[in-house]
Amino acid sequence: MGFEEKVKKNKNTIYVPDIARITRIEYLSPTEKVFKIVFDDEEIKNKFEFKPGQFVELTVFGLGEAPFSIVSNPTNKDFFKLCIRNVGNISSALHRMVEGTKIGIRGPFGNGYFPCQKMKNHNVLLIAGGLGIAPLMSLIRYILHYREDYKEIMVVYGAVNPGSILFKNEIQYWSNRGDISLCLSVDNPDNKWTGEIGVCTKLIPRVDFPSNDTYITVCGPPIMYRYVIDELEKKKFKPENIYLSLERRMECGVGKCNHCHIGDKLVCVDGPVFNLWEIRNLKEAL
Questions:
Q1: Distances from the Cα of 155 to the Cαs of 45, 220, 225, in angstroms?
Q2: What is the pLDDT of residues 185-209, one digit of tens each?
Q3: Positive or negative, the Cα torsion across 44, 50, 53, 54?
């Protein structure tokens, strides 16, 4: 009995992946690619639903699995997308794959996600550093899909250099729309860069959204969080309206390995998205 037949026979547990196929690979930068994924089973494809901020466990057969945030619009039922950086055994194996390769998918997972319903009729500020833009993409795409349901939208995004800016085509599309504000900065500009220079936290003081009518999402490298929170607190934004993704800590996805334990929380089960009020006093959360 082949592996796929064994999977189908034993598919009665969250620990067994569903068979899927990589149908398209998009190059974003020297280290990142976007993988478009479609389930082999039509019934599984139709049942698969996720919320912005949730993640899946992707299996490379014969090697292992790793968690990745979903970057596509949750309203699209035909496929979903993952943005993956080439680092580690699983991700480097994925970067060597070609379109048509079969993989395994478990999920989606996560009981903490970006509250797109709560955000309706409010301003939304999205702050990302580096690869942190990826977990925010499904939320941005959802908000723009239902743009009339939200007030002002602003994306603050910082990257190491112009070449490491991800989703350039989409960012250009946002710039052309006229109904979403965009602030970009890089740490190390080249001679063609005409935008802001420095870390993205320096752009936060320019935000003039009212503190009592704004939801904020933050995702980026660990060192970024405290500086972003400091700037947001100076502007009196409510901690219960500041949502942070801690997805970097996850491993098994179902709360069994304890790898993502912080205080009384398990990031993969209780998160990966938390509001600041929930985690500000938990050791090692930020």
A1: 31, 13, 16
A2: 999 999 999 989 999 999 999 899 9
A3: negative
Q: Which domain holds residue 90?
A: 3-109
What's the token pair of residue 78? 């035909």
Query: Residue 162 carries which DSSP code?
Result: G
Same domain, 85 and 186: no
Tokens describing residue 230: 């400091």
Amino acid 280: pLDDT: 83
Minimal CA–CA distance to 200: which of 187, 217, 211?
187
Beta-bridge partner residues of 142? none
286 falls within a domain: no
Using CA of residue 234, residue 240, residue 244, residue 249, what is the dihedral sign?
positive
CATH code assigned at 175: 3.40.50.80
Other beta carbons less than 10 A from residue 238's beta carbon: 17
Pairing of the two strands 242-245 and 261-262: unpaired
